[in-house]
Specification:
alpha/beta; eight-stranded mixed sheet; globular
Length: 390
Amino acid sequence: MKTLLLRNTNAILPDGKAENVSVLIGDGKILEISAVVGNPSADEEIDISNTTLFAGFIDLHIHGAVGIDTNETGADGLSRVARFLAKNGVCAWLPTLVPDSAENYLRSIQVIGELISAQDELEPAARVLGVHYEGPYVSEKQCGALHAEFFKTYDGGDVLKFLPRLKNQGAVHLTTLAPEIEGGIELIKALVKQGWVVSIGHTRATISILEQALEAGAHHMTHFMNAMSPLHHRHPGPIGWGLLNDGVTCDVIADGVHVDPLMLRLILRCKTPERISLISDAVAPAGLGDGEYSIWGETITVTEGRTSNARGSIAGSVITMLDAVRLMLSLGVAAEDVSRMASSNPAHLLGLDQDCGSIEVGKRADLTALDTEGNVRLTLVGGRVAFDSI
């Protein structure tokens, strides 16, 4: 077994920050975490002095980047996104599909499955874990940038009729839905029974329906505060319910645009870092800068990092998980808590926390090293170097 030793770093461990340690890696796993003094021998060593080592970021919600859209691309395009993500500290991700035709859903699933089957043999890049369907079972009244002509309701039939599954063993299936749609609660029950992760989003559900959804197995909320009815002192709605319900987790787009930093502080105060995951919700222009782009059959304009469509709606973000991490750190959130939100909480939501999401002996060596300015210096995916600027 060939081994790799990362030397002289400060590592964010589950129980806090460990200074001046080394991490021994072999067979894609973390073998040992030790003080620099008395380093174990290894076949290869990388000195990552003046860095902080985080568990690799996991992006639950991303529609594309570098000009690639997950609904339209092939496996090569997804691979380009994966390489871009690795440069930005992301080690795992869920390609996220917006509501689309049945034919294009099937094509997209075949493409995602193809990459999952091949990715271990390709050059190291962020690992595709499965698929996230944002819709089509969502509310027309909270459609955001999604195209309502593809929205569906549930009639009690085959749950996979409009949500084709990946055939890859162990692939994760997550969907965002609005529980108030016709048949919504029964749909949640059926999906949970088949092992899906169900998240509440694009919704105006009442408190009563939200409680039914939680009982049915939907215990997470998508891009919290966005695409849901606003908080009102007489109508608390999904936001008030989500803020106060400790049995519910949520994810947030921490770009300073979708949610004001003051509201991010409010979410942190109510939910605590244990119940929050960071997401990018990035769309194809991410990584390309300002300009006009054709996405989802319309023109999306990016101006100073803010997206908008012809209706004036925000149409996803152009950040990466690294940007979200930097913003949370700039708000004074401890690195240990930011790591929890960027890595271990997403892994837990997907049922993968025994395998990845934290720096522990026996777990996958999915790691990213940031320098003191928040730049990625090294990314390992399964112990393989996916990005190196040391």
